[in-house]
Amino acid sequence: LHDIPTIIDQFPLSQDELDPYGESTLDPDFVECMRYVLGKTYQSIKVYDLAPEIENLESIPYIVVNDGYREYDISGMGDGELVCLLTAWAVSRAVNNSVLIFEEIETYLSPKTQMRLMDYVAYHASQREIAVVLTTHSPDLLSSIHLESICLLRPYPTGTLISSVSSQNELREAVGLNIPRMGCLVVEDDRAEQFL
Q1: Which of 4, 9, 28, 127 counts the most CB atoms within 10 A of its CB?
Q2: What is the pTM of this model?
Q3: pLDDT in tens, 16-26
Q4: How far apart are CA 61 and CA 86, in angstroms?
Q5: Quick one: how many helices (H) and strands (E) in the chain?
Q6: CA quadruple 21, 105, 88, 65: dihedral positive or negative?
Q7: Rounded to whole angstroms, what are the CA distances from 44 to 19, 66, 90, 154?
Q8: In this structure, are strands 159-164 and 61-66 parallel, antiparallel, or unpaired?
């Protein structure tokens, strides 16, 4: 998915140039889900498959949306919007009982959108028995995943060490967050307490 914007930049297309590729309007449920995930007022989402123009690629989506105010394509989208639409598109096209791999799915997304996108991915993956493997540095995403489902990958002299996570503190440390410290502070009187 990360290479798609770069590939599509080679194809600035007008509506007349898109017509030969055939339009695929995504179903209303998909549009409604993307409204929720992105907080947009989408009326329609259309996808054109540019893959026949590019060798060795199964499918290259060129996405055009209408938000009720205007119609715009991927060249007018922010990176976060594009990441969400491409991710959801990939999930919608995945074969049942398959495996999807996403690298740092949270890139360009606010914490709220990260969680909504993961809700979408998790729901649709579970409905179709799709296994999802993803890499992330997002504490928000990690906090929503059971510890037993998380593996840490660390560089090791002979390759990469894969280990399970034993605690939230280990996980927080692994992604570079401070571990909360607890302590007790004793003060002399009410004034000192107010000062703190």
Answers
A1: 4
A2: 0.76
A3: 666 656 667 67
A4: 8
A5: 8, 8
A6: negative
A7: 17, 5, 18, 43
A8: unpaired
Give yes or no for residue 5 having a pLDDT over 70.
Answer: no
Name the helix (H) or strand (E) containing 192.
helix 190-195
Token pair for residue 127? 């409905």
Q: How many CA atoms lie within 13 A of 129 on its CB side?
A: 2
What CA–CA distance (Å, rounded) separates 23 from 145?
Answer: 37
Strands 99-103 and 131-135: parallel
**The most confident of 2-11, 32-41, 166-175, by mean pLDDT:** 32-41
| Separation between Cα atoms, residue 84 and residue 117, nearest integer Å | 7
Number of neighbours of residue 176 by Cβ within 10 angstroms: 8
